[in-house]
Amino acid sequence: MAAPGHRGSPVAVLTVAAILLVSLCLRPAAAQQGEDKGGEEETQRQQRYNFRFVRHARDAPLVSHFNYIVVGGGTAGCPLAATLSEHSRVLLLERGGYPYGNRNVSSEYHFADALADTSPRSPAQRFVSEDGVVNARARVLGGGSCLNAGFYTRASGEYVRAAGWDARLVNASYRWVEKELVSRPDVPKWQCALREGLLQAGVTPDNGYTFDHVPGTKIGGTIFDSTGRRHTAADFLRAANPRRLTVFLHATVSQILFRHREGSAKPVAYGVVFTDPMGVQHRVYLRGGGKSEVILAAGTLGSPQLLMLSGVGPRGQLEKHGIRAVMDHPMVGQGVADNPMNSVFVPSPVPVTLSLVQIVGVTRFGSFIEGVSGSQFGIPLHARGVRRRSHTFGMFSPMTGQLGTLPPSERTPDAMRRAADAMRGLDRRAFRGGFILEKILGPLSTGHIELRSTDPRANPAVTFNYFKDPKDVERCVRGIETIERVVRSRAFSRFTYANATAMDAAFDRAKLANFLNLLPRHPRDTRPLQQYCRDTVMTIWHYHGGCHVGPVVDQDYRVIGVEGLRVVDSSTFKYSPGTNPQATVMMLGR
Hints:
Blueprint: H1 10-25, H2 29-34, H3 38-48, E1 54-56, E2 63-66, E3 68-71, H4 77-84, E4 90-94, H5 103-106, H6 111-116, E5 124-128, E6 134-138, E7 151-152, H7 157-163, H8 167-181, H9 189-200, E8 206-209, E9 216-219, E10 221-222, E11 245-249, E12 252-260, E13 267-275, E14 281-286, E15 293-296, H10 299-309, E16 312-313, H11 315-320, E17 327-328, E18 334-336, E19 340-347, E20 359-362, E21 367-373, H12 413-424, E22 433-440, E23 447-450, E24 461-463, H13 470-488, H14 500-506, H15 509-512, H16 529-535, E25 538-539, E26 565-567, H17 582-589
Parallel strand pairs: 1-11, 2-14, 3-4, 3-15, 4-11, 8-9, 15-26, 16-17
Antiparallel strand pairs: 5-6, 7-10, 9-20, 12-13, 13-14, 18-23, 19-22, 19-25, 20-21, 21-22, 23-24
């Protein structure tokens, strides 16, 4: 209601309109202040999440017994363990460490630093697929939710029906996840321009703010709160029964134990072996009869890898590594896929606020358009009292293993170092702007996982076969064409240079084009878009498959051919759900 004497006045109307515009398109000051609160807030946060049931693996007994053993404290494993603990004694084993107190996990400002950290204690373990694309897998309590860009969106109704899930249970589980973790993002002007540009480019209708996966352009949820602090799947452990749940960190599971039960021809899982950082082996056994289970939630790489290390997999591959076959399961490790992602950097003549994924354009031809922006691209870290030396150049840069200007076969560690060193010498103005990316639906192209060794800490060999199916290439081409229309749109004009001359006057465009794929494309880049898609392919970390429902696990996620063993994670997906999978992985765990 207007103040007395001012109802309907032009000043009042303009004031209200300005307030609404600011609330939609500007990030509140709290987001900028969040990083500056420093150690005191982080200490309080650690105390809040100081779960007394979480312990280091070196403190574990040599032998213990539980009703359920969950292997992998990640995006699915944490909500799964919390849920099971309501009625049973549960052990959750995580090979990584605690997420709290690590600013590379908790702070939006340091998002790319976790991916750039290749140390043995990093929450991100880097791997390179046989295709040559650099990638990462989580190694931390909370899993991929500690590393991703935070975007939250559900799977489509069609996806839920195709999976054979109970829609009411699915929706109840999504709501449980959303109540615990999800916020509405404060959308800055760059993201507003992307949203309007997508609509002007024909990615309609405008679906507003929604978790639903439907065609058109929308604002999605985020697991970053209004201060830029990340909430992860580890937070679900607050809902656990602390008397029934035990969590061991830095616990690397090397084997699932099987035996033959009298009266059953199938091998039965009855425990696991894990090793602590000191090299001491610990054994955990199931108790409670036939309802007790080992549940793998170790992710797309970890779950098929552990099955094979335990003797469940293709017999020929097991014998190659001297592993006795418990169950010849030729489809374990097959059907692995990574949604190919192609991104372009759009330099801006004006400063751009930091933002991770908030807007998505869901096209009707099988491509999803998203964007990330801001000062992180070339400007040092935001830590108060720390000497500003570190440059990560954002999520799609050589420091995070992404160098899309070279074909995958040429992205060597030396090439990454040279690119990062050269980028440090460029003018800061070259890094104002943001990345617009397209990720394709599916994908239809698939590959496989094979063991490299019997070391459970080592990455397996992964082949994704990006763009093997021509339909994937066509979806990429149409996605890039849509991005070009967005960049040329009236709505996005404030954040693009008027012409090449203006861009060249601001910074050395030719040098920047050696490290980042630019839009507008450099005149020398005359490749057809089909080849451009293949040459510039990168990951968006949405890989999945290897333990598909049907060939490897049944509709209840029990491993076919054995008893007492399930797989509940992204390795069971044939296609990636929605535009970003974390919501559905959390829901599945619940």
